[in-house]
Amino acid sequence: MTAALLHADGLSVGYPGRVVGAGLSLELRGGEVLALLGPNGCGKTTLLKTVLGLLPALAGSVRLQGRALAAWPLAERARVVAYVPQGQASTFGFTALEMVLMGRTAHLGLIARPGAKDRAIALQALERLGIAHLAARSVHEVSGGERQLVLIARALAQQPQAVLLDEPTASLDFGNQGLVMRAIRTLAREGLAVLFTTHDPNQALRCADRALLMREGQVLGEGAVGQVIEAEGLRALYRAGVRQVDDAGGGLPVFLPEFETAQATKR
Asked: What is the reported pLDDT for 93?
């Protein structure tokens, strides 16, 4: 097994005077996808920001390539790990290419402007995600899923070894969720380490290799998705009824929240 690119051990995360989570550990390796799953307010985003160094750890350690995260200069860290925050609506009408070029900041000097090489790398990032045709389009003129792919392309323009995404399919329609999930698997096939947070166990089961389940700032389970994402564990995670439906086509189950169907109420 290859060494972990990113390793967090015994983390306590939160804010001054408020601990959000404690005793949290995770590992992320190249070529694998880790899904961080849990209900609203469980600490997923706080953990993600702490692992990225955007928030200081209250206790424990984060190591990147075996080196303490705090020892990495910001620009150097950004060349190894890229972050895609929850979907943002840009105030300015940047083109997709201009947005992706912003990812080159980690490789430029303080007042340097992107050059031909940076433009070529940005265009390549768009091509990798199948959206090169959007290069000249304003980000206000593309679909939500396409805009999210542009943000992922911006992260790729940093030329990182790992990409961390916070709820990358939030507010996206059914088809656009598929676009983003396919992009995540593409990154893993290319050897990148990928971590994403989600509320959807079906996305995690189909897109991730491993899952980490969080509730109230604690880890309830961690391991291969087929072992961790199952009905009993999801009931404990969400404290709600969960119904498992066998998927005869792909061999994977589908998990649904339990509720009385419209057909049943009409009887």
From this structure: 83
